[in-house]
């Protein structure tokens, strides 16, 4: 992993029945939850630099906190304790108290102490997933396409470094998500008259479940370039949430394959097919609908599927033509200005909401239509893409309320080099993008200046991923260029698979999980 990228590695020595184990901080919270424990954490600054604010130790509950959420909170506490971004190695002492299990069974009381080292930060200081973790949503644990996995292959192909390859029926551009030994994805026939969720064994590639969720008597029109199964699922321990836009949303028990709840009453004429993926925020499943007729976000109770809040966009699109109202983006949750913000690009505007209530916090009149890229946030700046006549790629300070368009720091329209589908990678102060026709660029994240531009050749819709010091792109014809990040274009390899990619890949362990138009692959070094 790049040594200038934020790293949150916490190794913990557990004392449990005299059997010590080494694990990561997030796993402490996850495993405690799996066993029914409540957990509390007390943080005491042990840095030689000390805390400039002299603040007392903080406490927060981890009983309902996910792995990446715990990492996010640790980052926020570290930044606050040092008065800003951490630019030196800081050590903190974490004390966990795990009481009797919630089910009433007697369990040992475990004391765990973890030394957390926060490495040097750079502009790319987005939260990076630890090697071997799950890939639970579109673009991974932090929604930014980043992983600190190592040992991934640079070269691969049909006869090289493919551990297994499994045919997937139907047509679906949803990306695979991974939890434990399960890979989940969605698919549908080209006519859209049935909707399926599939589960594939990570180790063997065997199809474990092929679940028909609904028959659709009169599916909406879907453009041939899109699919009826383009939104990526979201997954957590015990549940996977699948979404097909207005055609249906369901929660599935990952152990039994049974539907826990489903909804088919959320209206939207997608006009060209669905694209926005669901995200999990605490006890909510948040869905985005930006169609020809309806434009809104909705927060569902993830346990029951009931609507908790719904918020209409209320955007002045400048036209009654609904084709100019649609978008396909997936929101991103950040913490800035002392509050959590759900940043959601749309046609005409980029809007932030309170994820708990759906209340609008601010908006930027970013223009355009068909926004699809997922936002990024680092070092006080957020990055979004408003294509098709909008701001293009732009950076802004996500502070204040109401109309904050004046807080846009830079715009990089750059003509044809800005993507309308794929999302960027943000690493070491550079944004890496590829537009729809395969023109790749590196852009300075502070100024918006173009650093380099290189034509790849094939059309690219999938978003890239970063892992093991490499950026992986996958085009629609099956070619997969692998780049070395930097201020000069450097192609490490150009690989090829039989069918092209519309879905974005996942990274887990030492493997790439790649969905092409016909198959699902596990790609890893043969040795």
Structure in words:
With 527 residues, the protein is mostly beta strands. Helix content is 5%, strand content 39%. The chain is built from two helices and 39 strands. The protein has a six-stranded antiparallel sheet, with helices on one face. A five-stranded mixed sheet has the order 20-21-22-23-27, with no helix packed on it. Strand 25 (381-386) and strand 26 (392-396) form a beta hairpin. Helix 1 (25-34) packs across helix 2. The chain is globular and about 55 Å long.
Structural class: mainly beta
Strand order of the largest sheet: 2-1-6-5-3-4
Helical amount = under 10%
Largest sheet: 6 strands, antiparallel
Radius of gyration: 22 Å
How many strand elements? Answer: 39
How many H/I helices? 2
Which band does the percent of strand residues land in?
Answer: 35-45%
- N- to C-terminal distance: 20 Å
Poorly predicted ranges: 1-73, 75-131
Mean pLDDT: 81
Name the shape in a single word. globular
């Amino acid at each position: 992993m790049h040594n200038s990228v934020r790293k949150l590695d916490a190794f913990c020595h557990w004392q449990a029945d005299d059997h010590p184990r080494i694990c990561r901080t997030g796993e402490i919270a996850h495993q405690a939850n799996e066993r029914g424990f409540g957990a509390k954490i007390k943080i005491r600054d042990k840095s030689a630099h000390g805390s400039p604010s002299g603040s007392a130790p903080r406490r927060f509950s981890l009983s309902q906190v996910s792995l990446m959420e715990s990492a996010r909170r640790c980052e926020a506490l570290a930044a606050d304790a040092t008065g800003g971004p951490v630019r030196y190695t800081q050590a903190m002492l974490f004390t966990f108290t795990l009481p009797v299990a919630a089910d009433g069974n007697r369990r040992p009381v475990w004391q765990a102490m973890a030394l957390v080292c926060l490495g040097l930060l750079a502009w790319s200081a987005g939260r990076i997933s630890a090697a071997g973790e799950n890939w639970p949503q579109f673009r991974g644990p932090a929604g930014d396409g980043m992983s600190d996995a190592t040992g991934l292959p640079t070269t691969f192909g049909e006869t090289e470094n493919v551990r297994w390859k499994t045919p997937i029926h139907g047509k679906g551009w949803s990306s695979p998500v991974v939890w434990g030994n399960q890979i989940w994805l969605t698919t549908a026939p080209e006519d859209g008259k049935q909707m399926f969720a599939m589960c594939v064994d990570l180790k063997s590639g065997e199809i474990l479940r092929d679940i028909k969720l609904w028959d659709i008597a009169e599916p909406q029109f879907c453009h041939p370039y899109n699919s009826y199964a383009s939104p990526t699922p979201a997954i957590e321990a015990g549940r996977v949430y699948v979404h097909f836009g207005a055609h249906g949303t369901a929660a599935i028990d990952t152990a039994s394959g049974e539907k826990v709840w489903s909804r088919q009453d959320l209206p939207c004429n997608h006009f060209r097919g669905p694209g926005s993926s669901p995200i999990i925020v605490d006890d909510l499943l948040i869905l985005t609908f930006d169609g020809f007729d309806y434009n809104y976000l909705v927060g569902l109770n993830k346990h029951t599927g009931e609507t908790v809040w719904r918020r209409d966009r209320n955007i002045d699109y400048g036209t009654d033509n609904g084709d100019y109202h649609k978008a396909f983006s997936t929101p991103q949750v950040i913490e800035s200005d002392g509050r959590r913000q759900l940043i959601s690009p749309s046609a005409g505007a980029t809007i932030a909401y309170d994820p708990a209530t759906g209340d609008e916090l601010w908006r930027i009149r970013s223009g355009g239509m068909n926004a699809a890229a997922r936002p990024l946030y680092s070092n006080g700046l957020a990055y979004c893409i408003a294509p098709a006549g909008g701001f293009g790629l732009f950076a802004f300070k996500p502070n204040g309320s109401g109309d904050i368009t004046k807080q846009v720091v830079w715009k990089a329209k750059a003509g044809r080099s800005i993507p309308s589908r794929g999302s960027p990678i943000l690493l070491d102060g550079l944004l890496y993008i590829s537009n729809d026709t395969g023109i790749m660029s590196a852009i300075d994240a502070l100024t918006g200046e173009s650093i380099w531009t290189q034509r790849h050749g094939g059309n690219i819709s999938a978003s890239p991923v970063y892992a093991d010091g490499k950026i992986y792109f996958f085009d629609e014809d099956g070619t997969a260029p692998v780049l070395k990040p930097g201020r000069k274009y450097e192609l490490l390899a150009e690989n090829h698979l039989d069918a092209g990619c519309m879905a974005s890949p996942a990274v887990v362990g030492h493997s790439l999980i790649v969905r092409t138009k016909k198959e699902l692959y596990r790609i890893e070094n043969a040795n």
